[in-house]
Write a structure and sequence with these properties.
It is built from 4 helices and no strands. The chain is mainly alpha-helical.
């Protein structure tokens, strides 16, 4: 794929993220709950809102892999020793919730990093 075409696609996705952020700001301003975005943690929320469209396009496969790995794979935080344990359903639900929260809160990082790697790889092949 062409470097300039891919770069323009990423810029377009960042513009979509900024428009999404403006929409979120508008909704928070209408409801009066937007003061928490002026804190240090608000910077991360703003960054995540802007980068999420980029993450969904470029990091979707990694996000799904992380979700599956935490939910049913090798990174399960809660396990039962026996297959017929009465806690098995409860632990499965907890693992799914932890996997979902991990993907929602940190998925934008994986996607943004994957997009950056792809752009750097295409830039190394780009000849002016």
């Amino acid at each position: 794929m062409n470097y300039l075409k891919e770069r323009n696609k990423m810029i377009g996705l960042l513009v979509v993220g900024v428009l999404f952020l403006i929409g979120v700001f508008y909704v928070l301003a209408r409801s009066g709950n937007g003061l928490f975005l002026a804190s240090f943690s608000g910077i991360f929320i703003i960054l995540a809102l802007v980068l999420y469209p980029l993450a969904l396009v470029y990091g979707r496969s990694q996000i799904v892999d992380i979700f599956q790995s935490i939910r049913i794979g090798a990174r399960r935080p809660f396990l039962t020793k026996k297959i017929d344990s009465p806690w098995r359903l409860f632990f499965t639900v907890i693992n799914t919730v932890i996997a979902l929260l991990t993907v929602v809160f940190f998925g934008w990082i994986y996607g943004a990093y994957t997009a950056y790697q792809k752009l750097q790889m295409l830039k190394s092949y780009y000849v002016k």
